Amino acid sequence: MKALPRSRAEAQRTFVSFFVSEIAYALDVVYVVQIVHPGPVDPLPYMPHGVIGVSDFRGKVIPIIDLRVRLGASPARDERKVKWLVVKSGPAMGALVVDDVEDVFSVLLTEIRPPPRSGDEEMRALGGVFQHRKRMTFVLDLLRLQSLLEVTEHQPSEAQDPAGLRDEGRKKGRT
Fold it and tell me: What is the pLDDT of residues 78-123, one digit of tens each?
């Protein structure tokens, strides 16, 4: 049987592919703001698993999520290739630390299959799997990482509280 030609009308998604350890992942480009070289990170106590600290991105404090830590992968083999995928989901922004960024490409929705079930589904944050460049590529479901992107969203900024009155009120027992 001869394969039917693909129609331009078939639904597709465009992804950026990257590596965490030796595993290929992909993220829908609608979430990607920019791909940058890592910058300074300020660690904060009591951050969720995988959030290694915060950084300034264009005047906004964003959480830095190390996917190697979050996904239980080994450290990068070549730190010179490490990149940050600065992402935005709703009003929340953050940077995903990845070992290397490969390319941008489109995939037919019919080619994306459900991911294998194992381990903690929320920790893995997988939304699907497909073949790309003769290897399995796992779709990262950013919505499953949404709470990590929001860790800096509810902290008052100096612009909202320039005199530090919220802290003063707490010290005196006021709210």
Answer: 888 999 999 999 999 999 999 999 999 999 999 999 998 866 655 6
Determine the Cα–Cα distance for residues 101 and 26; give it in Å rounded to an integer. Answer: 10
Long-range contacts of 144-150 (CB under 8 A, 24+ apart): 145/65, 145/70, 145/94, 145/96, 146/89, 146/90, 146/92, 147/48, 148/48, 148/50, 148/51, 148/63, 148/65, 148/70, 148/94, 149/63, 149/65, 149/87, 149/89, 149/92, 149/93, 149/94, 150/92
Class for domain 12-153, per CATH? mainly beta
What is the pTM (predicted TM-score) of this model? 0.80
Distance from C-alpha of 99 to C-alpha of 25, rounded to nearest angstrom: 11
Report the alpha-carbon distance of residue 19 to residue 100 in Å, rounded. Answer: 5
Amino acid at 25: Y
Helix (H) or strand (E) holding 139: strand 135-140
Write down the domain spans for the chain.
Answer: 12-153
Could you give the CA distance from residue 41 to residue 154 in angstroms, rounded to a whole number?
19
Per DSSP, 150 falls in state: T
The bridge status of strand 126-132 relative to strand 100-108 is: unpaired
